[in-house]
Structure prediction request, 1065 residues.
Amino acid sequence: MNVSHLVAAAGLTILMAGPAMAARDYISIVGSSTVYPFATVVAEQYGKSSGAKTPKIESTGTGGGFKLFCGGVGVDHPDISNASRAIKESEMKACADNGVKEIVEVKIGYDGIVLANAKAAPEFKVSRKDIFLALAKEVPDPKDPAKLIANPYKTWKEINAELPDSKIEVLGPPPTSGTRDAFVELVMEVGAEKIDSLKAMKKADAKAFAKVFQTIREDGAYVEAGENDNLIVQKLQANPKAMGIFGFSFLDQNADVIKGSVIDGKGPSYEAIADGSYPVSRPLFFYVKKAHVEVIPGIKGFLAEFTNDKAWGKDGYLADKGLIAMPDAERKQMAEVVSKLTPMAMK
Amino acid sequence: MNDNGTNTAMNASPNLLAPASDLKRRYRTDKWFQRIGLGAIALSLAFIALLFFHIVREGHSAFVRANIMLDIDFAEKHFVKENLAAADYTALVKQALTEAFPEVVDRRDKRQLFSLLSSGAAYQLRDMVLANPRLIGTRQQVWLPADDDVDMLQKGKIDRNLPEENRRINDRQLSWLDTLASQGRLETQFNTAFFTGGDSREPELAGVLGAVKGTMLTLAITLMLSFPVGVAAAIYLEEFAPQNRWTDLIEVNINNLAAVPSIIFGLLGLAVFINFFGLPRSTPIVGGLVLALLTLPTIIIAGRAALKSVPPSIREAALGIGASKMQTVVHHVLPLALPGMLTGTIIGMAHALGETAPLLMIGMVAFIADVPGSIGDPAAVLPVQIYLWADSPERGFTEKTSAAIIILLAFLMTMNSLAIYLRKRFEIKW
Amino acid sequence: MTEQTFPLYGGKAASLQERLGDASPQERKTVGTPFVEEPRMTCRDVDVFYGGKQAISKVSIDIGRNQVLAMIGPSGCGKSTFLRCLNRMNDTVGACRVEGEIRLDGIDIYDPSVDVVPLRARVGMVFQKPNPFPKSIYDNVAYGPRIHGLTKDKNELDEIVETSLHKAGLWEEVKDRLREPGTGLSGGQQQRLCIARAIAVSPEVILMDEPCSALDPIATAKVEELIAELRTQYSIVIVTHAMQQASRVSQRTAYFHLGDLIEVGPTERIFTNPRHKLTEDYITGRFG
Prediction:
């Protein structure tokens, strides 16, 4: 065993790594785990058809993505950040502070959040108010609506006589997830506003109201199932009484074993999300650092691939993966933004 | 003392033929203890067997893939001499499918027909032509990868008896597939792509080579750094360092370091290697450095234990004929301690092999389709690949996940066998 | 047990310090003839401390040329400790401190400018438990000459190995299996291999720390024979528990008791006519 040889070899390897650091010949993308499945497909298609290196995509979450993206300009920082929500003002400021002045915002389509259960279970037709009452930690007392009490509902029937008499058991994402943020904003908040006493509360004390709709019950009716949506799908199959909350693409891929609930009269179909009639949907974005476009090879090609109708169009391959395409006019407008690389207005 | 002893012996000399009852009780305790031990072993073996059985049952189908044979007409009109890669290979696939099912004319139906084949089919044809341009102008029967839905159907993971609207494959597609199958044009064949391809978002095209290579590069860096450094540190601390408060402090800290959650090492790697030294994110060099930090305490602790177990008589013998301290260690102590050190190193490496948390912080949890060529290229490692596949919506990735776990286990077993082999080779009996 | 051990001190077990405090200077003074003419090694007023404890106090003795000095005494009397001072093996024990003067051919071996490596080549050592290296018989013997660079080529090395094994009386037994591991030999053979290993570097003094305590009577007899032969070329210091052994192999005997050198003299005289009461008690089997 010659120790000194090993040490020498290790040293040599580190030295050899030097040249590889100087430049970057691949696109670096970070951001939302919701956009990740779509961005990766585009990246792969781009890599295969162009023969260039396939972009590297990290699933960091929207917030984590912006943190890296806004870290500065240069090869050490990512070129593109995916987001399941629009960039926040504070993030834009952080970008600007670090010299990231010109950002191109690209909306790529919509994503629906579904409440689903096993195919074998009865179909649910719920309102967002029902979901709020089922999942909020504190709800108005049915006897005295001005008073908040710990959530007393054990079964769906107790909330709404038309719902099945089964135990409330919902598997959903943890607070770190973008899906959870969207769910709280699109379902819990709207559901809470449907209740008169809470509506009054919102006017009087917006903060207290926010606390009510943001706090999910912790008595076992809501189970945080981690970021792994596949796991939720499998658990739903095993337990027909349970409901699950996840992105539309998982419903789309597993339509033979699970089904989506009707929310406020609309089922989660591709069409309903695309035309906006399904209430729980959100736009998805990615953000491009304009300063990198001319420096890192392939960004333009990647953008062209993404905004091609064969990718993000109604019949494109992203639709196969569960992305809800934008209407033609919106898509056309976005494609123009991309081809001209029009930066968004920095606030 | 003496008097007492004799008396006792005379009063109650044990009867050899009929032992006292408390003796029986003692034997019973022995037996119970043995049974409990055996039970514990049986239980853990059963769990391991269950794990293996489950993973193999889930994952074995990933080693085969549904392929469809088509008559591809590499007609010259499709190709421009200068740029063979630019030809429209998708058109070749579509044309072949249209020829196979001339009755399908409606645009919508055609779309469904074309969706039976993987998007990778066109790239396979392109690679064929690039490798052998003489194909142009010929007509070839080519096995092309089917779409992952077809693959799942072939493997029985999509139930064809379900109502049509609940299937990702509709009745028309089913009938086309049946036609292909009856012509011997639809078969499940060994899935070479799984072993030769990088990651892909199409389950039928996804392979582990990128992750395997990334793992090898990363672990190579880890081994090259942590083994010599760890062994040197262990030797210094055990053989040379004076016994004082500083070395005690160092020892306590090394032991603590071994218990630090691995993600902390990831944060450290992010702050030091990426932000300070400017090494590129997501690369085996950074991953290897971080994992080297992670494995160092294990190697140092195991190395010290191995050095401690070398009998002091060997050191005395060497010192006694005038070997210097260094000669004593290098000629006599180290060869005897090496098997133990190797075991510790392999345990450390196996630990490193299974890590994802620290790699998350340095950007190695990422979609990386290209197989890495060097330690400066972005790369994924096997556990990260498993994690990413487990989180993918497509059904086909479920079996891929288990298959990747099988590969990871195979990797682990290879490493362990290597360790046993090395240990046997270096082991010196006396 | 303990009550029998120290009949001289009021039937009470006493620590070394205690007794040193109580005892009169006369009692601590070595009786007999500790010094010889033309000594190989001279020790004067040697004190050894382990941490705060004194293990050896004020030992003065000479080691003569071409003779065997046996050191006897009850367990824990410090004879092994003293032996290990003679080639500075105690250096490896961090807490051990040696005071006084030990000279080899006139040079103080504890002088800061003295290097232990050549010292140990000149003062070899054989240990209680046979400890051959887990290497071949040949390599065991050749190791010392190799690290000290005593040979120019392979032939010379072969010669040294053969001579050393001859001297150790092992050549005939192992000449056909020099490449086999030394650890495969019997206990007695292993100990003779260790002696061969020690003499391969041509030392002047050989220290033996109870070399036969792990051996059977036949192997012991062979090693004793060997010691008698080796005396013609080397100075030998042997620590032993067996008084018969001391009387058989040595010319001079030193009796240690609780860190003190009590009596030194020609072996025959010590065993027939001990002058100190403690020596007499020990060799007549009153304690030990």
